[in-house]
Amino acid sequence: MEKSVLAARLAKVQAQLEQSDKTCFMVSPSSTMKYLTGYGGQADERLLLLVLAKGKKPFIIANKLCELQICTAPVDDFIYWKDGEDAIGILMDALQQRQVDTSVTAVDKSLAGLFLIPISQQLKDSKIVLGNSLVDGLRVYKDEAEMAAMASACQRGAEALEATISRGKWWLGKTEVEFMAQLSFEMAQRGLKDPGSIVAVGANAAAPHHMNGQTLIEEGKCLLIDFGASYENYYTDMTRTYHFGQPSDEFKKVYDIVLEANRRGKEAARVGNLMQDVDRAARDYITAQGYGPYFTHRTGHGIGIDIHEGPPAAEGETTPIAVGMAFSIEPGIYLPGKFGIRIEDQALITKDGLRILHDVPRELCII
């Protein structure tokens, strides 16, 4: 992400802070930090914070080991500490030297207790509050660079899935975790990071958040694959359900219902509707077909730097659909002891209307 884009985001959050009841905002390594600085490092035992304060320029405090990575952030004030030094003490000195008002200190929701507790002990006269309201609203609406990153992530994810499933019946006798490992390898080969997946065989697919295990892929059973990974800090998230060997008439019937629910959800994903309209379009159809009790989760979730972020496509979510929003559309039917079917696509609302970022076929694929 270009530094000018990051600087503009930081300026918007600074302006939000100036108009709020909060006096400063501390951000640790997280999706919030990625959004504001481009730094994608993981939180660990070494203190690293971006600090915004009313009437002040932002600064970053980091361990010297992170200098080459964090120095590209769009700030001019860096404080580096070394192993063995008192990082919290150095932070307190920095706040005092810069005359930062800490009376209402906002923190990112990802700030670990390892740092939150000693900071709150040092700022014992301060009110500590969550500060994500300063950022989260901005993240809902993606700019052109974010849209391009997500589109690229989805294309690469689609290629990885097709490369993995193309082995066909070779997968018979292999386990869920073996499939996950190969899919993760294919994603990494295409530059995707932080891969994760649900690989569920047969009755395991009836658990929407199944934990991968040693269940064998077998003839006569379905294979549900829900997977995601990030590219340039933005996620792809997709689900496809395959079947090895000829499926039962019941499986084919349920598959067609889910496929139509997916289509109807996408049809409702247009500017002027509400996020709950996407859920209603998919859910009402599944319910009308007699499977309402077996659609056990929301129709979709927002997606961006986090794989789940922003308003969901769920009943009661009255956020209007607008240009720049990105979310999943993933209806499913889950029959305990039998099978589960989910078809998930990633939707992006552009100035030209709905854009579906995945092109892997949705029709039932029998292997």
Task: Provide a short characterization of the protein structure.
With 367 residues, the protein is of the alpha/beta class. Helix content is 33%, strand content 22%.
Question: Spans of 5+ residues with little confidence (pLDDT < 50)?
Answer: none
Distance between the termini: 41 Å
User: Which class best fits the helix and strand makeup?
Assistant: alpha/beta
- Fraction of residues in H or I helices: 25-40%
The structural domain count equals 2
- DSSP helical segment count: 10
CATH superfamily of the largest domain: Creatinase/methionine aminopeptidase superfamily
CATH architecture of the largest domain: Alpha-Beta Complex
Strand content: 15-25%
Give a verbal description of the structure.
- It is a single chain.
- A six-stranded mixed β-sheet has the order 4-3-2-1-5-6, sandwiched between helices.
- It folds into two domains: 3-137, 3-Layer(aba) Sandwich (Creatine Amidinohydrolase, Chain A, domain 1), CATH 3.40.350.10; 144-366, Alpha-Beta Complex (Creatine Amidinohydrolase).
- A hairpin with a 2-residue loop joins strand 8 (222-231) and strand 9 (234-243).
- The protein is built from ten helices and 15 strands.
- The chain is an alpha/beta fold.
